[in-house]
Amino acid sequence: MSGFITDKLFEGLDYSQHRLPKGEYENCVFKNCDFSNGYLDNQNFMECRFLDCNLSNTNIAHTQFNDVLFDHCKMIGLKFEESNDFLMDFTFKDCMLNLSSFVGLSLKGNHFLDCKFIEVDFTETELTNAKFEKCDLTRAIFQNSVLEGVDFSAALHFDIDPERNRLKGAVFTLKELPNLLKKHQLKILD
After folding, report:
1. Distance of alpha carbon 42 from alpha carbon 37, whole angstroms
2. pTM strictly above 0.85
3. What is the mean pLDDT of each run of 10 residues along the chain (190 residues)?
4. Number of other CB atoms surrounding residue 141 within 10 Å
5. Which 3 state secondary structure label does DSSP give 15?
6. Which of 36, 48, 114, 148 could be disulfide-bonded to 134 (CB atoms 3.0-4.6 Å)?
7. CA–centroid distance for 134 within its chain
8. CA-CA distance, 146 to 151, in Å (whole number)?
9. So what's the pLDDT on residue 174?
């Protein structure tokens, strides 16, 4: 059974054992909810906010995220490429997305603020004009990714091969330059 749910606050609820009712959620707020190891598949979220939620290892297959904010959420191991990419638009602020994947998605202009993307897979992801502000990209995978115009100036610990990614117009700081040249095993002195 599906329904249209609008302008509702869901606070302190545990959906790890019992799933969120299937529906179209518009302008709803999910605060301190636990979705870990649960099911959010085949849902529609439009203009929703997830605040201080745990979504780790949640099934998000065929779920639509349109203008969704994730703020201070734990989101380990999510496979965003399995979600519905039609009108996909989300913002991540102070989130932990370790071991998640965005393979083959178009995330043009997305803003990622103060997030951990440790071992996240961005293979063949379109990130044109995105911004990684104060984000930890330790062991994140960028392979055949479109990174044109991406602002990495405040990103940390990335390892990007310029020969395997499109980087025209991408912004980096001088101190992070060695992260673009790791495979060449050069010694860069300051």
Report:
1. 15
2. yes
3. 87 94 96 97 97 98 97 98 93 98 96 97 97 96 97 93 94 81 66
4. 18
5. coil
6. 114
7. 14
8. 13
9. 82
Contact (CB, 8 A) for 135 and 118 = no
Give the pLDDT confidence score for residue 66 in this predicted structure.
96
One-letter identity of residue 164: R
Q: Are strands 49-51 and 29-31 parallel, antiparallel or unpaired?
A: parallel
Residue 174, helix vs strand vs coil: helix
Other CB atoms within a 10 A radius of the CB of residue 152 amount to 23
pLDDT given at position 1: 42
CA–CA separation, 90 vs 111, rounded Å?
8
Domains and CATH numbers, the chain: 1-74 (2.160.20.80), 101-190 (2.160.20.80)
Q: 90 to each of 12, 87, 176, 177, 179, how far by Cα in Å?
A: 22, 10, 27, 29, 27
Rounded Cα distance between 55 and 35, Å, is: 5
The enclosing H or E element of 25 equals strand 23-26
Spacing of C-alpha 35 from chain mean position: 17
Instruction: Give 116: exposed, middle or buried? Use CB within 10 Å, 0-12, 13-18, 19+.
Output: buried
DSSP 52-106: S-B-TT-B-TT-EEEEEEEES-B-TT-BGGGSEEEEEEEEEES-B-TT-B-TT-B
